Amino acid sequence: MGKGTRSVRGSTRHVNDEAGSVIEPIYQTSLFDFREPEDRPSLHGVVPLKYSREDNPTVYAVESKMAELEHGVDALGTSSGMAAITTLMMSLLSKDSTVLMPLDVYGSTLVLMERLNRFGVRTVITDPGTNNVINSLRNSINVVFIESVSNPLLRVYDVPEIVKASHEAGATVVVDNTLATPIGLTPINHGVDFVIHSATKYLSGHNDVVAGFIVGNDDRIKGVWEWRRFLGTIMEPFTAFLLNRGLKTLHIRMRTHEENAKAVAEFLMNHPKVERVYYPCLNNHETHETAKKLLSNCGGIVSFEVRGGLKEAMAVYKHAKMIIPSVSFGGTESIITHPASTTHAHWSPEDRARAGIKDNLLRLSVGLEDPEDIINDLSQALNYA
């Protein structure tokens, strides 16, 4: 079954199909009849269905679809991408555990890991890049956490090489696959233990939900389910319904996001007021060869540096008309972000410089509008630089 068919259909139907609904219904209920527990379904094979903090049929439908898309044994829906990371880390880590990650992971992920130090968890932060991660591996590392494609400079990490080196060192590998999506890369096919998603982004695709996923490669996902139950981080049924709806067009949307992003990147490459463009499909990107090897879709994010500094970048940011100045990415609308003052504002200037995030850097989430309109808006905004 192809990725498009999996995105649209999946294989799981809701628990009670007596009404014959073609679309998965919304089970907006906090509890389920538990008169005969032995007759109740066990959705994730842990406990019978009884309470929506543990399991819900609407949530389970989209979880099963995500497990298929990412080629995992099971998937768990959570209330946000950060909830997915927190739940998984609570399951994997204990006092004296050590996590290895590169500096260019999502800013809030980095802060979360550093704050886990108060519970005895040690965090080792490397400079960005595949080789830096591999060269920092030691037998004392318990978990290696990377993003398949980093944000906002779009470095593509060599997942197979990191998995090989990490497993030889005895470490569990977690990959945040939010930017690549399962349309661009399926990390579990390369031996990754767990995949994380902020489903708020491309998976839902419409800037109208906040959600996350954890996908597991083996039975350890049942332990993660236990922690989701304890923490209460399960996805809401209506969110799951909207997310399932969004997934049905994921493969089509990603194709158009990529086409539009390539057109925008080529325009920016030739613009006199643009100093540098970051897009994995461009020959000049530092990880272009890795992108060619691993990615079947280069995504819809294009980052670029405006000639000058902060003043010039903010002039472009503020004068966008159709493109929305805001945060986040992956929706149908084009959104422009100034990472140094938003997503990475809580980083020190030294850490931003170490990660390559300059004051004149802008990140563009290229939407599904006509590419000519996106380019025309960028062109007029760049006049103010």
Automatic annotation (TrEMBL):
Keywords: Pyridoxal phosphate. It holds the Pfam family Cys_Met_Meta_PP. GO terms for biological process: cysteine biosynthetic process via cystathionine; methionine biosynthetic process; transsulfuration. Its cofactor is pyridoxal 5'-phosphate. GO terms for molecular function: cystathionine gamma-lyase activity; pyridoxal phosphate binding. Transmembrane segments: none annotated. InterPro entries: Cys/Met-Metab_PyrdxlP-dep_enz (IPR000277), Cys_met_metab_PP (IPR054542), PyrdxlP-dep_Trfase (IPR015424), PyrdxlP-dep_Trfase_major (IPR015421), PyrdxlP-dep_Trfase_small (IPR015422). GO terms for cellular component: cytoplasm. Belongs to the trans-sulfuration enzymes family. This is Cystathionine gamma-synthase.
